[in-house]
Amino acid sequence: MLELIQSGGWLMIPIIACSILSLAICLERFWVLQKKRVAPEHLLAQVWGLVRSGDMSPEQLQLIRSQSSLGQIMVAGLNNSNHGREIMKESIQEAAQHVVHQLERFLNALGTIAAIAPLLGLLGTVIGMIKVFSEIMLQGTGNANVLAGGISEALITTAAGLSVAIPTLIFHRYFQRRVESLLIEMEQESTKLVEVVHGEREVDFE
Predict the structure, then answer these.
(1) Domain of 189, in residue numbers
(2) How far, in Å, CA of 204 to CA of 206, rounded?
(3) What's the number of domains the chain is made of?
Protein backbone atom coordinates (compact mmCIF):
# COMPACT_ATOMS: atom_id res chain seq x y z
CA MET A 1 0.00 0.00 0.00
CA LEU A 2 2.82 2.40 0.85
CA GLU A 3 4.51 1.69 -2.47
CA LEU A 4 1.23 2.36 -4.26
CA ILE A 5 0.87 5.70 -2.49
CA GLN A 6 4.47 6.65 -3.25
CA SER A 7 4.09 5.75 -6.91
CA GLY A 8 1.11 8.10 -7.14
CA GLY A 9 3.32 11.13 -6.57
CA TRP A 10 2.94 14.15 -4.34
CA LEU A 11 -0.72 14.68 -5.24
CA MET A 12 -1.53 11.61 -3.17
CA ILE A 13 -0.88 13.73 -0.06
CA PRO A 14 -3.88 16.09 -0.51
CA ILE A 15 -6.03 13.16 -1.67
CA ILE A 16 -5.21 11.20 1.49
CA ALA A 17 -5.82 14.33 3.56
CA CYS A 18 -9.24 14.65 1.93
CA SER A 19 -10.04 11.02 2.76
CA ILE A 20 -9.09 11.49 6.42
CA LEU A 21 -11.11 14.69 6.71
CA SER A 22 -14.09 13.08 4.99
CA LEU A 23 -13.99 10.09 7.35
CA ALA A 24 -13.77 12.37 10.40
CA ILE A 25 -16.76 14.44 9.26
CA CYS A 26 -18.85 11.35 8.50
CA LEU A 27 -18.18 9.83 11.91
CA GLU A 28 -18.96 13.12 13.65
CA ARG A 29 -22.21 13.57 11.70
CA PHE A 30 -23.29 9.97 12.37
CA TRP A 31 -22.90 10.72 16.08
CA VAL A 32 -24.59 14.13 16.05
CA LEU A 33 -27.50 13.22 13.76
CA GLN A 34 -28.76 10.35 15.88
CA LYS A 35 -32.52 10.64 16.30
CA LYS A 36 -32.30 10.41 20.08
CA ARG A 37 -29.92 13.38 20.12
CA VAL A 38 -31.97 15.50 17.71
CA ALA A 39 -35.67 14.63 18.11
CA PRO A 40 -36.25 12.08 20.89
CA GLU A 41 -39.51 10.17 20.85
CA HIS A 42 -42.18 11.18 23.38
CA LEU A 43 -40.43 14.48 24.15
CA LEU A 44 -43.60 16.42 23.31
CA ALA A 45 -45.66 14.26 25.68
CA GLN A 46 -43.04 14.72 28.39
CA VAL A 47 -42.96 18.50 27.95
CA TRP A 48 -46.74 18.83 27.88
CA GLY A 49 -47.03 16.66 30.99
CA LEU A 50 -44.73 18.99 32.89
CA VAL A 51 -46.53 22.11 31.62
CA ARG A 52 -49.97 20.75 32.47
CA SER A 53 -48.93 19.62 35.96
CA GLY A 54 -47.22 22.92 36.73
CA ASP A 55 -43.87 21.22 37.31
CA MET A 56 -42.06 23.02 34.49
CA SER A 57 -39.33 24.83 36.43
CA PRO A 58 -36.40 26.82 34.98
CA GLU A 59 -34.19 23.86 35.83
CA GLN A 60 -36.45 21.51 33.86
CA LEU A 61 -36.44 23.91 30.91
CA GLN A 62 -32.65 24.05 30.94
CA LEU A 63 -32.43 20.25 31.13
CA ILE A 64 -34.81 19.77 28.20
CA ARG A 65 -32.97 22.42 26.19
CA SER A 66 -29.59 20.79 26.73
CA GLN A 67 -30.62 17.26 25.80
CA SER A 68 -31.70 17.63 22.17
CA SER A 69 -32.21 19.99 19.25
CA LEU A 70 -35.98 19.56 19.46
CA GLY A 71 -35.72 20.48 23.14
CA GLN A 72 -34.01 23.77 22.19
CA ILE A 73 -36.88 24.63 19.85
CA MET A 74 -39.62 23.70 22.30
CA VAL A 75 -38.07 25.62 25.18
CA ALA A 76 -37.75 28.70 22.96
CA GLY A 77 -41.47 28.46 22.26
CA LEU A 78 -42.47 27.82 25.85
CA ASN A 79 -40.47 30.80 27.06
CA ASN A 80 -42.62 33.04 24.87
CA SER A 81 -45.93 31.16 25.06
CA ASN A 82 -47.51 33.87 27.23
CA HIS A 83 -47.07 36.48 24.48
CA GLY A 84 -49.52 34.87 22.09
CA ARG A 85 -49.49 32.26 19.35
CA GLU A 86 -47.64 34.32 16.73
CA ILE A 87 -44.82 35.35 19.05
CA MET A 88 -44.45 31.73 20.17
CA LYS A 89 -44.22 30.60 16.54
CA GLU A 90 -41.65 33.28 15.72
CA SER A 91 -39.53 32.20 18.70
CA ILE A 92 -39.68 28.61 17.51
CA GLN A 93 -38.68 29.63 13.98
CA GLU A 94 -35.71 31.63 15.26
CA ALA A 95 -34.54 28.70 17.38
CA ALA A 96 -35.07 26.36 14.42
CA GLN A 97 -32.74 28.45 12.25
CA HIS A 98 -29.99 28.00 14.83
CA VAL A 99 -30.70 24.26 15.00
CA VAL A 100 -30.55 23.97 11.20
CA HIS A 101 -27.12 25.57 11.26
CA GLN A 102 -25.97 23.02 13.86
CA LEU A 103 -27.38 20.04 11.94
CA GLU A 104 -25.83 21.14 8.63
CA ARG A 105 -22.44 21.80 10.17
CA PHE A 106 -19.54 20.45 8.05
CA LEU A 107 -21.87 19.30 5.24
CA ASN A 108 -20.55 22.03 2.93
CA ALA A 109 -17.02 20.82 3.65
CA LEU A 110 -18.09 17.27 2.84
CA GLY A 111 -19.58 18.42 -0.46
CA THR A 112 -16.40 20.34 -1.26
CA ILE A 113 -14.28 17.24 -0.67
CA ALA A 114 -16.56 15.23 -2.97
CA ALA A 115 -16.04 17.88 -5.65
CA ILE A 116 -12.28 18.44 -5.41
CA ALA A 117 -11.08 14.86 -4.83
CA PRO A 118 -11.68 13.74 -8.45
CA LEU A 119 -10.19 17.01 -9.67
CA LEU A 120 -7.02 16.28 -7.71
CA GLY A 121 -6.98 12.84 -9.31
CA LEU A 122 -7.44 14.42 -12.74
CA LEU A 123 -4.59 16.82 -12.02
CA GLY A 124 -2.42 13.85 -11.14
CA THR A 125 -3.41 12.24 -14.43
CA VAL A 126 -2.42 15.34 -16.37
CA ILE A 127 0.91 15.64 -14.55
CA GLY A 128 1.64 11.96 -15.13
CA MET A 129 0.91 12.23 -18.84
CA ILE A 130 3.04 15.37 -19.11
CA LYS A 131 5.94 13.38 -17.65
CA VAL A 132 5.31 10.59 -20.14
CA PHE A 133 5.37 12.89 -23.17
CA SER A 134 8.36 14.77 -21.80
CA GLU A 135 10.31 11.51 -21.58
CA ILE A 136 9.17 10.55 -25.07
CA MET A 137 10.53 13.84 -26.38
CA LEU A 138 13.87 13.34 -24.60
CA GLN A 139 14.45 9.60 -24.95
CA GLY A 140 11.97 8.40 -27.50
CA THR A 141 9.75 5.39 -26.82
CA GLY A 142 12.56 3.00 -26.00
CA ASN A 143 12.58 3.44 -22.19
CA ALA A 144 9.51 1.46 -21.19
CA ASN A 145 10.16 1.79 -17.44
CA VAL A 146 10.00 5.57 -17.51
CA LEU A 147 6.87 5.56 -19.63
CA ALA A 148 5.18 2.98 -17.40
CA GLY A 149 6.04 5.04 -14.30
CA GLY A 150 4.37 8.15 -15.67
CA ILE A 151 1.28 6.26 -16.79
CA SER A 152 1.11 4.46 -13.44
CA GLU A 153 1.23 7.76 -11.56
CA ALA A 154 -1.58 9.09 -13.72
CA LEU A 155 -3.82 6.08 -13.17
CA ILE A 156 -3.16 5.78 -9.44
CA THR A 157 -4.05 9.39 -8.66
CA THR A 158 -7.22 9.15 -10.74
CA ALA A 159 -8.30 5.98 -8.97
CA ALA A 160 -7.46 7.44 -5.56
CA GLY A 161 -9.39 10.64 -6.23
CA LEU A 162 -12.48 8.72 -7.35
CA SER A 163 -12.18 6.32 -4.41
CA VAL A 164 -12.43 9.30 -2.04
CA ALA A 165 -15.03 11.26 -3.99
CA ILE A 166 -17.61 8.52 -4.56
CA PRO A 167 -18.26 7.49 -0.92
CA THR A 168 -17.97 11.10 0.21
CA LEU A 169 -20.68 12.15 -2.25
CA ILE A 170 -22.90 9.28 -1.13
CA PHE A 171 -22.59 10.24 2.54
CA HIS A 172 -23.06 13.93 1.72
CA ARG A 173 -26.39 13.17 0.05
CA TYR A 174 -27.34 10.81 2.88
CA PHE A 175 -26.70 13.43 5.58
CA GLN A 176 -28.61 16.07 3.62
CA ARG A 177 -31.67 13.81 3.45
CA ARG A 178 -31.22 12.91 7.11
CA VAL A 179 -31.24 16.57 8.13
CA GLU A 180 -34.32 17.26 5.99
CA SER A 181 -36.17 14.34 7.56
CA LEU A 182 -35.31 15.42 11.09
CA LEU A 183 -36.31 19.02 10.38
CA ILE A 184 -39.73 17.93 9.09
CA GLU A 185 -40.28 15.85 12.21
CA MET A 186 -39.24 18.69 14.52
CA GLU A 187 -41.49 21.12 12.66
CA GLN A 188 -44.46 18.80 13.13
CA GLU A 189 -43.76 18.36 16.84
CA SER A 190 -43.30 22.11 17.36
CA THR A 191 -46.57 22.86 15.57
CA LYS A 192 -48.36 20.39 17.84
CA LEU A 193 -46.88 22.11 20.88
CA VAL A 194 -48.08 25.55 19.76
CA GLU A 195 -51.58 24.27 19.02
CA VAL A 196 -51.88 22.37 22.30
CA VAL A 197 -50.57 25.23 24.45
CA HIS A 198 -53.09 27.63 22.87
CA GLY A 199 -56.00 25.19 23.02
CA GLU A 200 -56.25 24.63 19.28
CA ARG A 201 -55.60 20.91 19.38
CA GLU A 202 -56.69 17.96 21.47
CA VAL A 203 -53.95 16.14 23.37
CA ASP A 204 -53.46 13.03 21.23
CA PHE A 205 -49.72 12.37 21.49
CA GLU A 206 -49.50 10.70 24.88
Answers:
(1) 38-197
(2) 6
(3) 1
